[in-house]
């Protein structure tokens, strides 16, 4: 009787990778270079969306491994402390679908802040009842918020998330950007 080799093909997972602080604050990256770097790092189906650090890619690895690999590749190629939050595309779709406020309000920005650290999520969630910074509601690994245009950076939440201690575990995207990522 002949033996048969069993070949296992890893299931590819589609991820959304959100680079924090790209094309703001002096970190200027061309998205074509980002895509090439991530492709060279072993990811497939790499596609960038807009110029603000939104990347779709495929990998057989889990999100934590994708994050570590992407951060290392970007740091090596571009020489900056890369911060990347990674989520399965279907998880991002569910997060957007769960947005608790009217998504399109004239004169307001609708945001989702992705939070990778549960302790940081708890800290930021505590801001939900403070001040008059618009609407803030914690979700599953995210903070949903809506704020009048022009008030984002001066708001309690905006100033808090701008602190360096949150750089490795948070990134914010507006709802319109996330809709484009999911197309």
From TrEMBL:
User: What InterPro entries does the database record attribute to this sequence?
Assistant: DUF1697
Q: Where are the transmembrane segments?
A: none
Q: What Pfam families would the database entry show?
A: DUF1697
Checking PANTHER family in the record gives: BLL4334 PROTEIN, DUF1697 DOMAIN-CONTAINING PROTEIN
What is this protein's name? Pyridoxamine 5-phosphate oxidase
Originating species: Mycolicibacter sinensis (strain JDM601) (Mycobacterium sinense)
């Amino acid at each position: 009787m002949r033996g048969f080799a069993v070949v296992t093909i890893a299931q590819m997972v589609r991820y959304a990778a959100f680079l924090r602080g790209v094309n703001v604050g002096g970190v200027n990256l061309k998205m074509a270079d980002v895509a090439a770097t991530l492709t060279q790092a072993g990811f497939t189906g790499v596609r960038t969306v807009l110029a603000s650090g939104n990347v779709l890619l495929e990998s057989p690895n889990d999100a934590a491994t994708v994050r570590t690999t992407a951060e290392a590749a970007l740091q090596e190629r571009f020489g900056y402390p890369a911060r990347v939050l990674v989520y399965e595309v279907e998880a991002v779709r569910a997060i957007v679908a769960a947005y608790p406020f009217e998504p399109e309000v004239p004169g307001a920005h609708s945001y989702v802040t992705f939070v990778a650290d549960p302790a940081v999520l708890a800290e930021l969630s505590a801001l939900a009842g403070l001040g008059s910074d618009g609407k803030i509601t914690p979700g599953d690994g995210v903070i949903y918020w809506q704020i009048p245009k022009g008030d984002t950076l001066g708001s309690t939440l905006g100033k808090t998330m701008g602190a360096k201690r949150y750089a490795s575990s948070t990134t914010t995207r507006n709802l319109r950007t996330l809709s484009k990522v999911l197309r």
